[in-house]
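Quick illustration, no need to memorize.
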Amino acid sequence: MRTDIMGVGFDDLTLDEAAEKGAALLREEGFHYVVTPNPEIVDRARREEPFRQALNGADLVLPDGIGIVYAARLLGRPLKGRCPGIDLAGRLMAHMAESGERLYLLGAKPGVAEAAARNLEEKYPGLTICGTHDGYFKEDAPVVEAIRASGADAVFVCLGAPKQEYWMIEHGPATGAKLMAGLGGSLDVFAGVARRAPEAWQKLGLEWLYRLLREPRRIGRMARLPLFLVEAAAVRLKGGGDRG
């Protein structure tokens, strides 16, 4: 049973458990997709019913941001912890490198996915990245056909929310891939275009602050985090907490 956090149902899993579930989905028949909402995404989903349905319809819904974990505590529905999409991707790639499954990278600016592919194949010996495509395409059909022709088992879809979630739902089955994961800006990190917060900041749940210090223009978006927590506390006070 999922844990409801402001209208989005999250799977209460550790990162290792989530990776095991993702690997299991790769072995199953049919198409599956994974989403990793943060507070900004959940906030948008509260206002947009189709987006909320897209998130809740995923095979795995994982808490990417520390704000989701804090909100869960405020609501009296504590989660086991964060499952950042970029960390889930790392565990899945390690698994795929051993099992021989094929990965396709979709998204980011031209050239970024290719650079990410080179770095990832070096980091995960045995990993097969069978194709890449940037996120600046105007027609979906050629991209779908490229993925199908590549024989990809999994696709990391990095188009930003909510585009990536809608794209996975609409086009995922036609690609022949078994698993897609919406991973936002992860390709920029894999390519070395963007830097992730140091591990110490990650452990303290302060990646958001690190990104804000490096990109002050994000202040408007980051301001939603305390408001999101205030809203979660208000829901608890109104008696909307303690329900899974």
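The mean pLDDT is 92.
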